[in-house]
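Purpose: get a first structural picture of the assembly so the mutagenesis plan has something to point at.
Setup: four entries, given in the order below. No constraints added.
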Amino acid sequence: MDAIERLASLFEHFPGIGPRQAERFVQFLLRSSPGVRRELAESVQALARDIRQCSECMRFYSGESKTCGICASASRDKSLLAVVASDADLAALEKSGTYRGGYFVLGGTLDLASEKTDRLRVKQLLTHINDLRSRYTDLKEVILAFPANPEGDATAAKVREEILDLRNPNIKVTTLGRGLSTGSELEYADPETIKSALEGRR
Amino acid sequence: MDAIERLASLFEHFPGIGPRQAERFVQFLLRSSPGVRRELAESVQALARDIRQCSECMRFYSGESKTCGICASASRDKSLLAVVASDADLAALEKSGTYRGGYFVLGGTLDLASEKTDRLRVKQLLTHINDLRSRYTDLKEVILAFPANPEGDATAAKVREEILDLRNPNIKVTTLGRGLSTGSELEYADPETIKSALEGRR
Amino acid sequence: MDAIERLASLFEHFPGIGPRQAERFVQFLLRSSPGVRRELAESVQALARDIRQCSECMRFYSGESKTCGICASASRDKSLLAVVASDADLAALEKSGTYRGGYFVLGGTLDLASEKTDRLRVKQLLTHINDLRSRYTDLKEVILAFPANPEGDATAAKVREEILDLRNPNIKVTTLGRGLSTGSELEYADPETIKSALEGRR
Amino acid sequence: MDAIERLASLFEHFPGIGPRQAERFVQFLLRSSPGVRRELAESVQALARDIRQCSECMRFYSGESKTCGICASASRDKSLLAVVASDADLAALEKSGTYRGGYFVLGGTLDLASEKTDRLRVKQLLTHINDLRSRYTDLKEVILAFPANPEGDATAAKVREEILDLRNPNIKVTTLGRGLSTGSELEYADPETIKSALEGRR
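Result (structure tokens, whole complex):
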């Protein structure tokens, strides 16, 4: 396997990339200047050096501090904790501009076939909740902010159960509201969404 | 224009049909048996003869009775009235199996460019609400069940205003709940939907 | 089944139309004026009255004459006969503006699973070729103008064999040229197309 | 700009990659093992070290030799030279298994807006043709194997003119055959393709 093939096979593991696009990436880099290739190689290596995983919320961030900017911020609402599947979902909640509480990145959703949870940071979440409780006495609500699909629902059910087992009577566990999302037409909405939209009317 | 072209030009007015598919429809009918063509022609004509528009909810239905089965039913909840844009939206609500109130078909949504409402049955809706109030004293809520898009929102705003002008203190006007619809991933959800999902959490 | 359902079930048999779009067609007709519905019903019925199938090329055409305009035309090249699968393919060849010979509509392509040819007018084609030969002594080439897919290729192989069995030494049987079609990029072309494009270079 | 943002902005320059997928690539690398990141960085750097551009055909290849395997091969047909736009197009011709001549990678196609050719290796091609002529006296045909689109056609016209200016009476300049590509249906084919398919029938 030569350098072209080896690099193409690495790109093939990138999310959403097939053999053909992997080859195009290599051709693109072959046509690029040595400076571009060096910058790419260095930036990939820099990830490990410059990016840390926050010891509290588990998200990746850039910086010298022990915890990320959100976890370290005094102005965030310590009574709310949103549990999300991924850094991308955390970023989506943050961009909406309405949430001011804390986060915890679970690292994925439950695989429905295997029902295995070992890839997910469920234990770390429980430890984190207990930790938050001991530091800030006012944690009141854990929001399970998972995608509105069977995997997300199964993950929410599992995590809810584990949190309830902590027997912390003052913590409420909630899930995100369901209903018509922006752009939805009733005619094409599934019965479950219509049901949620009717129940959540106001 | 021969019979093939005339029929193709009629099919071109069908929703979502372009010139090419219109031609395919004609070719399909040319290859069909005379019996199929006769049945189609008769069924089209039968619409006017067999289908009536309900004088209460304005939907199309088949039957001899003056009002449709839903409006005539004693078992429907007379305290709820859902205002929908089209028969198709009414059918979607009905299929969800959770709604047991009455309906009113407005006939469309507001055109944002012209803001004209003359295509919509706003006056008939107001008359219908007054009528329902006089017959069943317990109409308590009008649900504006429009699509979750700018046209639907503008229609809801307009209709809400008109209903409030009736000064019926006992009628609440609601809209469908917004949030994540089935299958939504947070990562791809728009900020408005995430905001609604956070507000509607439970 | 009421008139709405009966008409919807007829539209569901239209090519490319599913249950949902069939329902939309019915709703469209319900909202249309009685005049539109009457015109549609009459146009469907008019097909049988005004449209004939040409006794020579088997295509559908409008008119009183026994044969269609193309078959009746003295200016068409009688030495060429293009055999096509459908009226739509005939129309595509005609629109290209380069073909001036005659046509024969076979009525479809071979089904690869059953290999049955009884739906196809193979016998009529052979009779038509003999007939042309006796009337115009100069029929020189039969062009098998089928789609460039396995069904088209199998149909061409079968029809070619049958024509060769006629033992008409002066008739050449050809198929359409293969190669890059407009817009094709080499990178995404299949090996068979590239092979044809190389062989057909000029 | 932190390491995550810097790497994402590099991935955004990859062909066909937008901001969202660039972010997903970075998240994928953050979750990957240090070994995977190191291998990627090294493979990118290895391109410059291990991959050379062939001094004859200008394609990228892996090896110590001065020319690529195809140019160095004694078994390739020296009478044919295919001029292609890119390494990917060369690979497509090679995969078809029918072409046994030489290649020259032009480096792109003409930009129709600017009509500039300075990005393309037109001069190198002419030098290469003269060079081939002096070494192998039997170069007989230059095949302009460009995509079947306006850019490809304009490039072919330009390159053909330049080659004819060389006044080498024994060199024939050809282009790839046009026609129905595999899977094409006549009904949806453009007139130009049908014209080529009719002309190229056999």
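Strands of chain D lie at 51-53, 60-62, 77-84, 101-105, 141-145, 172-175.
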